[in-house]
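residues and backbone:
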Amino acid sequence: MFKLLKIALILATVASLLIVPFGSTALAQEYFEAEEPSGGAMMYDLCVVRPVALVATALGSVVFVLSSPFSALGDNLDVAGQKLVKNPASYTFKRPLGEFQHGDR
């Protein structure tokens, strides 16, 4: 049981390390003129970026729930909700397919 969990964790780590270099490409695109996304970009978005963003939304929601008492004491509950839940959810569900930037981030 633990061996299977360990293998799954190793595979997830390797997959995330392979995805990291593509992030710099997506960030660099803000300096280029916007054009219609290609089919490859749409497939990459659908198969890789959206599932990762969905996991980020779920993890952000869990972290928000766990940190909400401390955020409420620090009077920054709205900011924590925006950064941990609303921004990842907006990036996952409201962004056009194949476009890696979202206007209201």
